[in-house]
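Run log // design_07
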C-alpha cells in the first residue's frame, strides 16, 4: 500500500521549516568556535566561497532530488535511478543525520542548562570555570541532553506540518533581532579593532593550511544542513509545482547572515575581555555569560531570552535531523511513526552519552580528539562532503541537461549555465580535493 505523502501547507511553511533546520547551533556555537580555532579571516573567506560556489548548487540539487523522487533520502535515488548504487549518497546522509544528532543533543542540552541557569539568576564571575565544571560532570549534562532529546521527540511526534512548521514560524525573527542587538552592544565593548583584524584581515599563510579548507567546507555543509538528506527529505514534501531557486537563495542568505552577525556578537566581546578565540567547543558558552554580565541589571533577562531562543533554534534543527531517520525507517519497518520516533530518539540519546562523558568525566578519545569532537569532525568533514559529492555527481552527470534545468527550476534562468558548470566541474573537484587532503591530514 502506497501511503500518500504529506505536503507542506504553503511555500512559506517550506521556507520557514527549512530555515528552522538551517539556523541553529551551527550558526552560533559551531561557526564561532570553528572560526576561532581556524585562524579567523582565512576560514571566513573560504567558508563564504564554499557557501556560494558549493553550498548553493548542492542545496538546489538536494531539493530537486527530493521533489523529483517524492520520497525519503534513500528511496528518492532508487526511484529516479532504479538498479543503481546512487542511493548510497542518501544512505550516507541518513547515517550522518543520525550521528550528528547524537552530539547535537549534547550541545542542545548545554543550551537548555544555561537557559535554566539564567532563569535562576545568571552566571557571574569566571564563566570558563563554570562551563568546564559543568561539562565535566558525569550526570548533569546527560540529564539535560535527555530533556533536549525528549522535546525533539515530542515535536516530531506531532507530525510534519503541525510540529515543524508551527515551531519554526515565530522564533526566527526574534532570535535574529536579539543577535543583532547583542552584536551592536558587543561592538561597543572596546575589542572591535582586534576582532575586525581577526575576522576580516586575511593572513595569507593560513590559506596554505588544508585544515582550514576542510573546516570551512565542513562548516558550510553543516550550517546549511546539506549532505545529510535533510534538504532532500524536505524537498520531497514539496508539491512538484513549487519553485526552488529563490527558496534556496533566501535560506542561504539568512543562514550566512546569522553566522556573520553572531561572529560580530562573539569576537569583539571576546577580544574586549581578553579571552582566547581558540577556546574550542565551549567558546560561546564562555563568552556569552561575560557579555550578559557586562550588560548589568538587564543582563540576566537578556541572557535568559537568548538561551531560550538558542534552545528553540537548536530544537528546530534537531527535529529536522530526527525527521530524516524517521522518514527513512517509516517506509521500511512495520512500526508506527510514534514507535519509530521513540525508538530512534532513545538510540540517538544513548549514542550521545559517550560524547558527553568525553568532555571531562572520562577519557574517551578517537584519533586524538575527544569522542564528541571526533563525531563532529567525522560527520561534518567526511560524511557530509561525501554524501553531497555523490548527490552532485548523480544529478550533474547522470541527468540530461534538460532534466537538470527543469528539476532545479533553472530552465528560464540566466544563471543556468554557471550553475551547470559549478555542479559538473567546480563543486565535485573542489569537494574531492578538500576531502582528500583533509582526511589525509586528519589520519596521518
Ligand atoms: N544546520 C543546523 C545548524 O546550523 C544544524 C543541523 C546540522 C541541522 C545538521 C541539521 C543537520 O545548527
Ligand atoms: Na546553520
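design_07 sequence
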Amino acid at each position: 500500500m502506497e501511503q500518500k505523502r504529506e505536503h507542506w501547507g504553503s511555500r512559506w511553511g517550506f521556507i520557514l521549516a527549512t530555515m528552522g533546520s538551517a539556523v541553529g547551533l551551527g550558526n552560533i556555537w559551531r561557526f564561532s568556535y570553528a572560526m576561532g580555532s581556524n585562524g579567523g579571516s582565512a576560514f571566513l573567506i573560504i567558508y563564504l566561497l564554499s557557501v556560494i560556489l558549493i553550498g548553493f548548487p548542492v542545496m538546489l540539487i538536494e531539493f530537486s532530488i527530493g521533489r523529483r523522487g517524492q520520497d525519503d533520502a534513500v528511496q528518492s535515488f532508487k526511484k529516479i535511478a532504479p538498479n543503481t548504487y546512487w542511493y548510497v549518497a542518501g544512505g550516507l546522509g541518513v547515517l550522518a543525520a543520525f550521528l550528528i544528532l547524537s552530539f547535537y543533543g549534547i550541545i542542545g542540552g548545554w543550551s537548555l542548562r544555561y537557559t535554566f541557569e539564567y532563569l535562576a539568576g545568571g552566571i557571574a564571575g569566571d564563566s570558563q570555570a563554570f562551563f568546564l565544571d559543568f561539562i565535566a560532570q558525569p550526570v548533569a549534562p546527560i540529564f539535560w541532553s535527555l530533556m533536549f532529546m525528549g522535546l525533539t521527540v515530542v515535536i516530531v511526534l506531532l507530525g510534519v506540518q503541525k510540529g515543524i512548521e508551527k515551531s519554526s514560524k515565530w522564533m526566527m525573527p526574534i532570535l535574529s533581532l536579539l543577535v543583532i542587538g547583542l552584536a551592536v552592544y558587543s561592538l561597543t565593548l572596546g575589542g572591535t579593532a582586534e576582532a575586525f583584524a581577526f575576522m576580516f584581515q586575511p593572513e595569507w599563510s593560513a590559506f596554505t593550511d588544508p585544515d582550514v579548507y576542510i573546516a570551512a567546507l565542513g562548516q558550510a555543509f553543516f550550517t546549511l544542513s546539506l549532505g545529510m538528506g535533510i534538504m532532500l527529505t524536505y524537498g520531497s514534501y514539496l508539491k512538484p509545482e513549487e519553485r526552488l531557486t529563490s527558496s534556496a537563495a533566501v535560506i542561504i542568505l539568512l543562514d550566512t547572515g546569522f553566522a556573520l552577525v553572531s561572529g560580530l556578537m562573539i569576537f569583539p566581546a571576546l577580544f574586549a575581555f581578553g579571552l582566547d578565540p581558540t577556546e574550542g567547543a565551549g567558546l560561546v558558552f564562555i563568552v556569552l555569560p561575560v557579555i550578559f554580565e557586562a550588560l548589568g541589571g538587564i543582563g540576566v533577562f537578556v541572557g535568559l531570552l537568548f538561551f531560550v531562543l538558542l534552545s528553540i533554534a537548536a530544537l528546530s534543527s534537531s527535529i529536522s535531523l530526527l525527521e530524516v531517520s524517521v522518514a527513512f525507517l517509516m517506509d521500511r519497518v512495520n512500526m508506527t511513526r510514534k514507535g519509530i520516533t521513540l525508538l530512534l530518539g532513545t538510540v540517538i540519546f544513548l549514542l550521545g552519552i559517550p560524547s558527553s562523558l568525553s568532555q571531562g568525566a572520562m577519557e574517551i578519545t578517537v584519533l586524538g580528539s575527544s569522542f564528541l569532537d571526533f563525531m563532529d569532525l567525522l560527520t561534518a568533514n567526511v560524511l557530509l562532503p561525501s554524501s553531497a559529492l555523490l548527490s552532485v555527481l548523480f544529478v550533474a552527470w547522470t541527468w540530461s541537461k534538460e532534466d537538470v534545468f527543469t528539476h532545479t527550476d533553472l530552465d528560464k534562468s540566466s544563471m543556468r549555465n554557471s550553475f551547470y558548470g559549478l555542479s559538473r566541474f567546480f563543486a565535485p573537484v573542489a569537494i574531492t580535493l578538500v576531502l582528500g587532503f583533509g582526511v589525509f591530514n586528519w589520519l596521518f
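The chain has 18 helices and two strands.
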